[in-house]
Amino acid sequence: MTETTRRGFVTSTVGALGAGAVLANLGSSAQTSFAAELETTVDDRAFWTLVQAQFRLEPGLLYFNNASLGPSPGLVADATEHYRRTLDAFPSRWMWGGWNDDMESVRRRGAALLGASAEEIALIHNTTEGMNLIAHSLELEPGDEIIAADHEHWSGTIPWEYWQAPKGVRLVRPTLPLVPTEPDEIVDAYRRAITPRTRVISMCHVVNTNGMILPVKEVSALARERGIPVAVDGAQAPGQIDVDLHDLGCDFYAASAHKWLFSPKGVGIFYARQESQPMLRPLIVAHGWEDTSIRRLENYNTRNLPEVLGLGTAFDFQQIMGSQRRSARILELKRRFRGRLEGDPAFKIKTPADDRLSAGIQTVEIIGRDVLEVASELADHHRIDCRPMTSHGLNGLRISLSVFNSEDQIAALTAALREASAG
Q1: Mean pLDDT throughout 337-349?
Q2: What gap in Å lies between CA 349 and CA 318, rounded to an integer?
Q3: DSSP collapsed to 3 states, the chain
């Protein structure tokens, strides 16, 4: 989103949403004043200080674990609580149709943020559900092959193993370069894995191990030439990097919104390209199962609607910041972090430096130290929360850098890492 577009966001959104509960929060809550305050803030540091003030992390906690679970800003938490209280005040009204228009508004806002049509977006629970939806739907036969590289999260492999392996379908696990310097190195790994029996490519957009950004667009183009559908685990991408689903060209894309999008916990987004939707069958069926639209994939009957509507506010929060400005901020934090450690023989950064290949997730090894011990020391002595990564020979701390982190926090983090390196 450009700065001009961001400045017009509140006015245009209020005009487009109508008179539902979403508009009530936009028009009368702190959301409008927050957007106006950011709009008039020229200084970049002051802008991000305002953003950081939205997050209610414990005092003294240095949170670098957004890739595991992101915090919701106050605007999102308060809106979700508003919806919860509204529901409890008149349960049957709001659960059974009162929020239908507002749900569709959330769908439209998610589609706009991710470069898709609203008719290609389902509002689900998380990435795991989305990957199961794909894996259980596809009609594969004995001897068919699914490519899922070695850095896939278990949510990207177990559904295939459960739904397809018993039928004699084979999971092919190519090895990706750990620290590539060019996206083509990754594309080549997928190209070499394709055989005449390949029926699906299942891949992450951003891997959770060391934060590599995988070239989904290039792999999707490679697959389309061969008539192979591409399913993407996007858990770590939306909100960390810009995502344009139509430009990526994949068939399916599942994302948890509780990480970089800062949504309420337990809601997610599922994308299915219009032409690919006939391949899919719902995981759960209920009244209305005969619906032919993508909504059939989210028909759970009773569900936690306050969290789904809170997801809409999370989309708004992203738009208010501006996706381009948010992505630039995360890349700037990455450079500051790497700049403090690069050249120091005590550390080895095990994430690609190129902005095409990494963003807010950086994995660093302290030479000669066991990562589990270091993670415990950081938590116990410095109240630093990050994720130790032991797979793929990483022995590294996965540092997640997000918009609620500051330059001062990065300085404190790197000082603690140097203390740990001294043993």
Answers
A1: 97
A2: 29
A3: CCHHHHHCHHHHHHHHHCCCHHHHHHHHCHHHHHHHHHHCCCCHHHHHHHHHCCECCCCCCEECCCCCCCCCEHHHHHHHHHHHHHHHHCHHHHHHHHCHHHHHHHHHHHHHHHCCCHHHEEEECCHHHHHHHHHHHCCCCCCCEEECCCCCCHHHCHHHHHHCHHHCCEEECCCCCCCCCCHHHHHHHHHHHCCCCEEEEEEECECCCCCCECCHHHHHHHHHCCCCCEEEECCCCECCECCCHHHHCCCEEEEECCCCCCCCCCCEEEEECHHHHHHCCCCCCCCCCCCCCHHHHHCCCCCCHHHHHHHHHHHHHHHHHCHHHHHHHHHHHHHHHHHHHCCCCCEEECCCCCCCCCCCEEEEEECCCCHHHHHHHHHHHHCEECEEECHHHCCEEEEECCCCCCHHHHHHHHHHHHHHHCC
Please state the domain extents for the chain.
Answer: 109-316, 324-421
Looking at the domain that runs over 109-316, which CATH code has it been given?
Answer: 3.40.640.10
Report d(CA 350, CA 348) in Å as an integer: 6
Does the pLDDT of residue 4 top 70, yes or no? no
Mean pLDDT to the nearest integer, 268-275:
98
Distance (Å, whole) CA 282 – CA 296: 7
Q: 98: which 2 tokens?
A: 């009162």
Same fold for the pair 109-316 and 324-421: no
pLDDT one-digit tens code per residue, 184-236 = 999 999 999 999 999 999 999 999 999 999 999 999 999 999 999 999 999 99
Confidence (pLDDT) at 31: 86
Which pLDDT band, with edges at 50, 70 and 90, does 1 fall under? very low
pLDDT number for residue 423: 76
**At residue 22, what are phi and psi to the nearest 5 degrees?**
-60, -45
pTM of the model: 0.93
At the topology level of CATH, where does 324-421 sit? Aspartate Aminotransferase, domain 1 (3.90.1150)
Residues 323, 318: Cα–Cα separation, whole Å:
6
Rounded CA gap, 331 and 180, in Å? 18
